């Protein structure tokens, strides 16, 4: 009996019953009817099991008390209770099995309660996290709305700023265009100032030359006025001092003075072409051609071709002038003087543009020079134009100025050329020419410049770069250039 009581006490059956009743009370309102009935049936079964154990313990206790042991207690307490209508279910299982089942049920209920409490805690935690996430989501949504509002505002402002910036860009472009026009105008003015300065220098030289000529003339007049009159001798034979003096040297005529002035101007301009224009053209060509020797060859050949074309144009114009003046000439001077005077007065009739085209056409078929395919020799047009003008006007002088024939590999002439700084001064042959010499009546007036190197004759010629424009110019050169129909006179040589 005591063992049965001990098992009942250790199984905490009544505590389990109390817990179940409390749980049923808490969840009764939210459970369904079947769930609540199942829970009540479970409580009744558990109560009947406990009652069975109690009845077993009571019978054992009564048997230990003898025949009349505990009869009064049963009569006074158990019988009235049974008479009230309570019927306890008989135990279908053993007491040990019933207590084990009760204990397992209690343990399961405890685990279920623990799991339920843990589930409730997790649920509360998740609800807390969900509320926090919802709060963060609301904050993020507010920030997104603020960002969208700022973006729209910025978009509107940037649209206005873009319109303003486009207007500013248009104004700046207009200002830039005006500034470029003004810069080009200033550049032209500077070029004119440079031309004016060069003209002033030339005029100063001409003035000094005229002053020297005036002094020479004044000295001649002074000597003529200061010479003593001839005295007569009584003897019929003339004395030495009575013999007529030799005629004084004739004073230069206006044509001779004009020719000398033009001569000095053209010589100075030729020096300017060498010292200024040639260097500027070299700097411009070095942007497209890396070989410095090729740059110098291009400029030299352009100069020689310009002299040749200008001479041919001058001869053609002289023939036309002679043909024009021949029927109407009746002056005191000769026809050649009239033709020369007509040419000098009409030097502006020279068609320099056609000469520039002829020079470029001749350079396109020259095998000694090459040029990049993306560029043309028309880049040298300003320089060729100036050289053609100078060469044409030099042909109108008396005697005319000319340049000598120059070939690569010729013997170096100290009277015609001076060696360049990068030459081999012990080499006797000319590798290539830098600038032609200037001749007057077969005598060297201004030395040219050349480069001397050993093995100059073995230097290979450069081939032309392929260009459709230059190839077409080669085909049309035979019909457009007058070079092939030259007369065999010594002045018609190709330079």
TrEMBL record:
Keywords: Coiled coil, Cytoplasm, Lipid-binding, Membrane, Mitochondrion, Mitochondrion outer membrane. Residues 457-482 have a biased composition (Low complexity). Residues 116-157, 193-220 form a coiled coil. InterPro entries: MIEAP, MIEAP_C. Belongs to the MIEAP family. Residues 483-495 have a biased composition (Basic residues). The gene is Spata18. It comes from the Eukaryota. One of its GO terms (cellular component) is mitochondrial matrix. The keyword Lyase does not apply. Residues 262-452 form the Mitochondria-eating protein C-terminal domain. One of its GO terms (molecular function) is lipid binding. This is Mitochondria-eating protein. It is found in: Cytoplasm; Mitochondrion matrix; Mitochondrion outer membrane. One of its GO terms (biological process) is mitochondrial protein catabolic process. Residues 456-495 are annotated as: Disordered.
